[in-house]
Amino acid sequence: MRVQIAIGGDGAIVDGATPRKNIEVNITRDGQNGASAYQIWLDGGHEGTPEDFLAWLQANSGVSQEDLDQAVSEMEAYTDGVAADLQLNIEDVEDEVNALAAEVDLKLDKTEPSTLFTGNVMQFDKPRSYGNWFSPLSAFGYFSTSDAVLHTESVIYYNASALPSGILNTGSTRIGGDFVPNVVNKITARYVSTSNPRFEYTIEQRNPETPITLTYASTFVLDMAIRAPQLMTLGGNITFNTPTNITPGAEISLVITGGAATHTVAFPAFKWMNGSPPSLPAGKELIVWLFSKGTTVGDVIASYTIQS
Question: What pLDDT score was predicted for residue 40?
Answer without folding.
Answer: 81
